[in-house]
Amino acid sequence: MAAETTTRPAPPEQIRAVPVRHPGRWIGTAVIAVLAAMFVHMLVTNAAFQWAFMFDNMFTPPVLRGAQTTLIMTVLAMVIGVLLGIVFAVMRLSPNPVLSGAAWVYVWFFRAIPRYVLLFFFANLGALYGTYELGIPFDHQLMGLLGLSGDLRFLGLNGNQIFAGFTAGLLGLALSEGAYMAEIVRAGMQSVDPGQTEAASALGMSRGATLRRIVLPQAMRVIVPPTGNETIAMLKDTSLLIAVPVTSELNFQLHAIGSRTFQIIPLAVASILWYLALASLLMIGQYFVERRFSRGVGSRETRAQRAERQARTVGGTH
Amino acid sequence: MVRAEKVHKSFGHVEVLRGIDLEVAPREVMCVIGPSGSGKSTFLRCINHLEKIDAGRLWVDGRLVGYREKGDKLHELRDKEVSAQRRDIGMVFQRFNLFPHMTALENVIEAPTRVKGMGKQEARERGAELLTRVGLGDRIQNYPNQLSGGQQQRVAIARALAMEPKLMLFDEPTSALDPELVGEVLDVMRGLAETGMTMVVVTHEMGFAREVGDTLVFMDDGLVVEAGDPRQVLTDPQHQRTQAFLSKVL
Questions:
Q1: How far apart are CA B105 and CA B127, in angstroms?
Q2: What is the rounded distance in angstroms from the CA atom of residue B203 to the CA atom of residue B191?
Q3: Rounded to whole angstroms, how far apart are CA atoms A40 and B199?
């Protein structure tokens, strides 16, 4: 490098031109600064915000439990939703028209129904049947054919008990999420080069192993960012659990305090701050998950890898 | 090793293979040339059942590919059985098709560990050995996108060899490479041929076909037009279509 610079001719004089002025940008900056100042002024001077009252009520044990419930509900609904999504995406891409059609119907139904409506419906499933039982389908008819009486049911659950509160809410949110995730996972799987499946087949890998080891890990790069968005949307949609209702949930608790004390605005603001904080937490998680699944994409040789390679070359193994 | 009898294959209304009769002996290196669309890649993909043939018979190592003959009826093999057949047939693709989320070594040991149930440690040692054999002993921890095209293709060859195949299929292995990287891949293939591997190579590299190939097959329009000793076919082609093709590419 040093040898080159001595032989190269001296560069011409640096350009020192008068830069173009952007008066529009300065006006815009000024307008935003004034608006921001007005906003802060309002927050500080308007007594209706009741900041002290808000902070006193924002971290009471029921509210903290509410935040916990909300997070647990978000995680569980997403985990079930993602698993359902993978199952239905695989079904959707199946060459079998019955499987593919069933997956289509599922996605069509649960994407079309608003979550609030769905949650209300699930909350009242206890009114449809008193007990929900697990057993052999059409057992009464079967036993009748065999000339026997009785039934073939193993497990009976009280409808009013299972479709109440947390379970009903989880069922509604997870089933709805499964439909969205099915579409996201399908897009991800279709984004993987078919040559990958071919290469895996040519190596004698089974379909299942190809899906788990080759297709899904690569599809994850496409699946993870929208799934992060879905998770944040799910966090917010737990506030819809008021339709069930799930009384232990965060927004329900804050709303209840607001109604009881007639301090609507402070507790509504508390809700905003809580959801901001929880969503920010999820966004940090999303960042790390995305980094994990972008391995081998656009990454140059890392410093550690290069050092290791050079060390090995010097060591004379090659 | 490979025997094809009247192999036909259509995609919709387009008949890509119109009756291929070929035989590849053990340890033979067969090079297949021909204009694009002549069906040479399709034929290669039929050999390991990536494409189903519509008519005719195809045997690898004495076993019918993709089917079982019971009486006078053919039964399709289950996915599992097809996979088992493919284990003995290595394939190298034009576009490498390395697994981008795995390092070179992980690419090579994936099938031996998952499919053959080989121990991780043994697979790693053998994988490193194979990568060294293709000249990439210092690149085993790199991801495919950190490697040049020629290096990627050599990893792909090592990956196929890791399954200890009896037969290697090469589908235009150098066509996606920059010209200066073609040589390193051909060198590895030449070395492989010297070990006695049975190879079917679809290629445009006439020099390779001449030096390494035992047989040269010229395909056009879904048919084998001419087959024979490479030097003979290249210097003194008997058929008009072969002559026309060679006059354009040589």
A1: 6
A2: 17
A3: 76
pLDDT band at A301 (very low <50, low <70, confident <90, very high): low
Cα B131 to Cα A77, B29, B120: the distances in Å are 45, 22, 16
Q: Which of B191, B209, B203, B195 is nearest to B135 (CA)?
A: B191
AA identity, residue B36? S
Q: Are B199 and B193 in contact, with CB atoms under 8 Å apart?
A: yes
Interface of A with B in 287-316 (CB under 8 A): 295-301, 305, 308-309, 312-313
Cα–Cα distance measured from residue A123 to residue A132, given in angstroms and rounded to the nearest whole number: 14
Structure tokens at B62: 């004495």
Distance from CA of A221 to the nearest CA of B (A): 10
Residues of A in contact with B80 (CB under 8 A): 206
Task: Report the SS3 class of residue B20.
Answer: strand
Q: Is B100's CB within 8 Å of A317's CB? A: no
Give B-chain residues touching A294 at CB under 8 angstroms: none
The per-residue pLDDT for range A190-244, each reduced to its tens digit, is 999 999 999 999 999 998 899 999 999 999 888 988 999 999 999 999 999 988 8
B105: closest CA among B155, B41, B42? B155
Task: Read off the pLDDT of each residue in B42-52 and give the average, rounded to a whole number.
Answer: 94
Distance CA B110, CA A204 (A): 11
What pLDDT is attached to residue A318? 40
Contacts of B8 (CB under 8 A, 6+ apart): B15, B17, B18, B19, B53, B54, B55, B56
CA distances to A228, A284, A291, B51 from A288, rounded to whole Å, are 11, 7, 5, 41
Full-model pTM: 0.78
CB B209 within 8 A of CB B226: no
AA letter at A275: Y
Dist. CA B29–CA B169, nearest whole Å: 10
Q: Which residues does A111 contact at the CB level (< 8 Å), separation at least 6?
A: A176, A179, A180, A183
Percent of chain A predicted with pLDDT > 70: 88
